[in-house]
Amino acid sequence: MVGRSSETGITGALFRLAVERERLLFVIVALVLFATGVLHIRALPQNHDVGWLLYAAGEILNGSEPYVDVVEVNPPLILYFMVAVKAVSLLTGISDFIVFHIVLLALVALSVWLGCSVLRRTIPESHRLVVPSLCLLSIAMLTTWAAYHFGQREHMAITLVLPYLFAAAGRAEGKELPTGIAVVIGVLAGVGVGLKPFFLPVWLGVEVYLAVTRSPSLWRRPEQIALVAVLVAYALSVLVFVPAYFELAALAARPYRSYHSKALSQIVTSAGTLFAMLVLLASSNVPASGPLKRLRGVLTVAMLMFVAGVVLQGKGWGYHWLPVQVLGVLLLGIVGLDGVRRLPGRFGYGLLSRAFVAMIAVMTCGFAVFRYGVVEREWARLAKSPFFLYQMMDVVEAHAPGGTIASLTTQVQVSWPLVNYTGVKWGSRFNSLWLLLGIYEDIKFSPNPFPYGRLEEAGELEKYLIDSVVTDLREYQPDLLVVEIFPPRYEMRGFAYLDFFARDERFREIFTRYEPLELVGPLAVYKRNGAAAVEEGSGE
User: What percentage of the chain carries pLDDT values higher than 70?
Assistant: First the structure.
């Protein structure tokens, strides 16, 4: 008995030592992945949407009324977030972009930590290697893979919702969570779901899955109550503090649908949909082991609901698919571990699964290093259409240093992050003239000349756009006016921005003060007469 006990003690000690080494290795790999992701994100150029939102937040802090003086298509929650980031930047003197990165990276770290904590309570010891696998994959996907899309609403949504999905899988297995952790998870998920109405199907789909597979009474769990409380508080805040959003939303609903939209057939046959279908095919061909069945079920439902969100938006842009890609990769990792369990062999599940996790670690680290090459490609992309960032920076810095610029184009990327990098003031309430696409939504291959119509007979949207642009040009008197010479859509052949606005007498009078400066790609740059004198304080 003594010998057997001694042998058991030695075996147990060796087992504990092996587990500790596994944990240490996991921590090291996780830190390497996160550090690589941080370096990757910091080396990338500023995202155009993030640049606009940070600028808009600064204008709001300076007294501009959101959705009136600063027009943004997204619901107010993202503006709340950006205003907080901008406030911290102003208080600390740190660049708003750096503060934004610090906050987002902290949220990624919190999300992964919460996810690991929940999974450790959900996944039994026999499947403990699932936890490090999913955590490593999550870190790589939420940092390095996100790349230029880091900080987009989809990236923020999947970052904030991921712990909620892991917690939902645990609840489906009958596992309990500490109330404090559950509340934090619910608050994060509420913010993530609230960023866009198109994310609501994810929450509703997961709740229906839990009600069907476990119990309808699960809606009373702490994280669910916290999530609902956040959404209710958010809705009330919009009603009380930002009522102008509803007026703009009613006016802009149609043009937003028209803004660079894609046909349903294009979205359902896109690479994003194909990837989701391949993940489902792989998952359906590898039976789920008991402890992972609910986890696979929750992630599958969430992935499909994010696909539905892409379809509802009608755009199918690259970053719209980011949550689908993250969840798809996590599902493939789980399916791979389930597949390893069913492999015949003399080595047993323990060794094979460790080899699989090691492969994940090596592949994700290698992927992070390889992905770093994307940095150069992203910067090179900014030198081309529609950015022409370097060329436009030279023009702005030479002819309007510390001044004001505006643009007549539906391309957000023409002005952002140009404004952020040059530090000039923006001379418009719009980030671009995206509303314009809603005015001529029904135009099909127009004849030449373009059928603009009489201004007196224009609809509410057209009058609002023209009056807003003219009012802003009068108020800001931009030193440089950038005009795209291409039409907003191929179907709008013959359209010219200057002709569209020249129907207004006030615009014609304003434009007489501008003279052609130079042409940068399809961007005609005009300089206001006397702009240099105004900069020197002589007035106009």
Answer: 90
Torsion of CA 357, 363, 366, 368, to 10 degrees: -90
Q: How confident is the model at residue 521 (pLDDT cuts 50, 70, 90)?
A: very high
Global pTM reads 0.90
**Residue 257 to residue 314: CA distance in whole angstroms:** 7
Nearest residue to 295 via CA among 263, 342, 333, 348: 333
- For residue 527, the cross-strand partners are 480, 515
User: Is residue 434 within 8 Å of 251, Cβ to Cβ?
Assistant: no
Say if residues 352 and 305 touch (Cβ distance below 8 Å).
no
Report the C-alpha gap between 289 and 529 in whole angstroms.
73
CB-CB contact of 366 with 450 (8 Å) = no
| H helix or E strand, kind and range, residue 164 | helix 153-172
Q: What is the pLDDT of residue 82?
A: 98
Q: Which strand ranges, in their side-by-side order, compose the sheet holding 523-528?
A: 425-426, 404-408, 480-484, 523-528, 514-520
What DSSP element (H or E) covers 56?
helix 48-61
Instruction: Tell me the C-alpha to C-alpha distance, in Å, between residue 253 and each of 74, 166, 196, 409.
Output: 11, 34, 14, 19
**10-57: per-residue pLDDT in tens?**
655 544 555 566 777 788 888 988 998 898 899 999 999 999 999 999
The candidate with the shortest Cα–Cα distance to 139, out of 235, 246, 31, is 31
CB-CB neighbours of 379 under 10 Å? 14
Q: How many Cβ atoms from other residues are within 10 Å of residue 367's Cβ?
A: 17
What pLDDT does residue 352 have? 61
